[in-house]
Amino acid sequence: MTEAAGCERAGSTERFVYFVVRIRFDPQDPAAGPTGIIERLGSGRARRFSGTQDLLAVLAEEVGVPTSPPPASGAEPGCATTHPGHDFNQGVG
User: Is the distance from CB of 47 to CB of 39 less than 8 angstroms?
Assistant: First the structure.
């Protein structure tokens, strides 16, 4: 199972998606940033990333959300908020 139910708020249930991430940092070149592999559990698909922005882009693509949601205002701790055009409380498939 790659998803689990989270907190409930206003009649919707937040979903969690699990990943395995292997990150490599080069001690000889710390400015190079992280590189590695990320896999969404249960998908059987591993993807390489090179740098922090690339990792964020892979995560965003995997769960189908924008890479920079607006800051939460009045959100409950541990619960997602909504963003125009996407409901973060909606389960991902």
Answer: yes
